[in-house]
Amino acid sequence: MRLLFALCFVAVAAAGYREICPKCGHQMRSQFMFYSNFTNLNHGAYGATPYPVVQAQEGYTREEEGNIQNWINGANGYRGKEIVVRNMIAQYVNANPEDIVLIENASGAINAILRSLPLKRGDILLDFSTAYPPFKQFYLWLQATMGIQILEVPLVFPLKGPESVLEPLADVLARNLSNIAVAVVSHVASYPGVMLPAKEVVAACRAKGIPVIVDGAHAFGAVDVNIGDMDPDYYFGNGHKWLFSPRGSAFLYVRHALQQPLFPAPAVIDNFGESFVERFVWTGTRDYTAFCAMKDAFAFRETVGGDAVIKGYNQGLARWAGHYLASLWNTTLLAPDSMQGTMTNVMVPTKNTTACAIVVGKLLNEHGIMVSGAGSLDAQHGGIACFFRLSGQIYLEESDFELVGRLVPELLRQVEGS
Fold this sequence. Notes:
Elements: H1 2-18, E1 39-40, H2 43-46, H3 51-66, H4 68-73, H5 78-93, E2 100-103, H6 106-116, E3 124-128, H7 133-146, E4 149-153, H8 163-173, E5 180-186, H9 198-206, E6 212-215, H10 227-230, E7 234-238, E8 250-254, H11 276-281, H12 289-292, H13 294-304, H14 307-329, E9 343-347, H15 353-367, E10 369-370, E11 375-377, E12 384-391, H16 398-417
Parallel strand pairs: 1-10, 3-4, 3-5, 5-6, 6-7
Antiparallel strand pairs: 2-8, 7-8, 9-12, 11-12
Helix pairs in contact: 1-14, 3-13, 8-9, 14-16, 15-16
C-alpha cells in the first residue's frame, strides 16, 4: 500500500511536464539516428545529434571541400559563420561576444585556462570531489610537472541542499590559505549529475580573492546559464551534450581583464599578438564544421518548441524518473529536486558494486539500454555502493524508465544469485 501511494504521488506530481512538449517522446526518435534496438538513457555522456544538424554540418563540409580558400578566408566562409555562432551563444548565456571563443570541448577549455595561468610550485588548485574524473587526472599531471597542490572539497551524499556544498567550502576557505591560486566548480557536476550552487561558490571564492573557473559542460542547453549574473572569471560549456550540436563544439568565456595571457592548448595560432578571439578562431588546419553547426542546433531547438519547452520536458521527465525508480526500488535520490536538472541520480537496490556493474553491461548487451556506468561513492562521500545517473531527453518517455525499473531487480537477482 505504501509503495502504491508513493507511485501514485509521483504520477500526479509529474503529470504537468508531459503537456509542455506535445512533440516529445518516442515520436521524436525519428529526428535522431538511433538504431531501433537502442535506448539512450545516458544522453549526458555523449549527447545525440539530430538529423537536421547532421545534414547542416554535411553542407558546411561541402562548402569547405568545394572551395577551401573561400572557406578559410572568404567573407562567407568559416570565419563569418564563427562570428554568427559566437553572437548567438553570447546572447544565450548573457555575455559579450568578444569574451567568448569556440573550442572543441570542456577538456580543451580547462587545458587552455590552466596552462595559461602563471601557476608555480606550491600553488593550490581547489575543486570539489564531484569534479569530472579526467579533470582530476589533468590536475595530477599539473602536480607532477609543475608542483601544484590539489585541494578537494568533499561532498557527502545524499545532498540535503546547497548547504551541503557551501558549508564544506566555507570550512576550507576558513583556513585562510594564502596560496589558493584558482578554484574550479561544476555548474552541473558529472558524477553524481547534480546542480551545484555555482553562483554562491563564485561569490565565496571571490571574497577571498580567488579566481573561479565554472565547468558548464553539463549545463549549456540543459539549465539556464546567465554568465552576467553568475559573474565567473572563466566559464565553458559543451554543445554536444545538451544543446544538440555535433561532438567537438563548445564555448569558452573569459573575463575581459584576464584574456591577455590566455592561449589555446596547444598554442597553435596565427599571430601571438592577436586579440583573445583571434587567437582561438584559427588553431591549425582542422574540421571547424561542428562549430558552424551550433547555429543549426539553436534552430533545431526552435522546431521542437524552443528552449523553455525542451528544458521543461527534460527536467520534468528526469524528475519523474528519479522519484519513480526510488519509490519502486525503495531507495533514495542523491539530491533534492532543486539540485537535479535534466539528470536524476538514484541509488540502485544493491550493496554489491561489482554486481551492479555487471547489470549495466547486461542492460546494454542484452536489452539495448545504455545507462550511466555503475557509479559508487566511498565512505568519505556517502558510502553508496551503486547509483545510476539517468538523463531526461526529448526522445524518451516514461515507459523507457519503467522498463529499467523492472529489469534491474531481475538482473540483480540473476547476478547475485549465481
